UniProtKB/TrEMBL annotation:
GO molecular function terms attached to this record: glial cell-derived neurotrophic factor receptor binding; growth factor activity; receptor tyrosine kinase binding
Subunit structure, interactors included: Homodimer; disulfide-linked. Interacts with GFRA2 coreceptor and RET: forms a 2:2:2 ternary complex composed of NRTN ligand, GFRA2 and RET receptor. Also forms a 4:4:4 tetrameric complex composed of 4 copies of NRTN ligand, GFRA2 and RET receptor, which prevents endocytosis of RET.
Protein name from the UniProt record: Neurturin
SUPFAM superfamilies, per database record: Cystine-knot cytokines (SSF57501)
GO cellular component term, pick one: extracellular region
Similarity comment: Belongs to the TGF-beta family. GDNF subfamily.
Region called Disordered, residue ranges: 1-43
UniProt key word Secreted: yes
Amino acid sequence: MFNGSRKYSPLPSSPSSSRASSSSSSSSSSSLPAAPRRSPRALKRHSSLLAQYSSLLESYTEGEIRQLISALVERYSQAMNSGGHELPLFGRSGSRRKRARARHKPCALKELEVSVSELGLGYESDETVLFRYCSGTCEAAVRSYDLSLKSMRSRRRIKKEKVRARPCCRPLAYDDDVSFLDAYNRYYTVNELSAKECGCV
């Protein structure tokens, strides 16, 4: 067993003393050589990161570095225009994948069971109806019209008009009319309330 408070003296520099120390070390098996000093881990990691980034930048051409800087500046301006206060460069990969999956769900028909009062049409009734709606993205349905419209908006050729530069998931057909009694026993019929078929328009 070694004593934890034991200190090792530095090795002597003279040859005779080194020979003596080597002979004494061979005779006693309990002595250990002094451990080399290690630099702090944080500094080593920092320097290794700097080395990685510098070697990475050296592999790029001047044109590629300019494109990278312009892309970063564009992302920063987009973040500031949308109300952000920091550059969203390195998001969490897990949440980013979840958002990507949520964004790219195809356009499909969904349904909810709601009360007539929840429809927001001004009727007071506790009767429930099946409300079908369209939900999802239309990335696969982007046409040349959408790409050109997006380009015209980015070039500010179209400024004031309210246009949508991508297809939207909307009803292509509606379900049958819905009839119900309100809270005062009055009979109403509402048409084109629930979607029957969805598509990208």
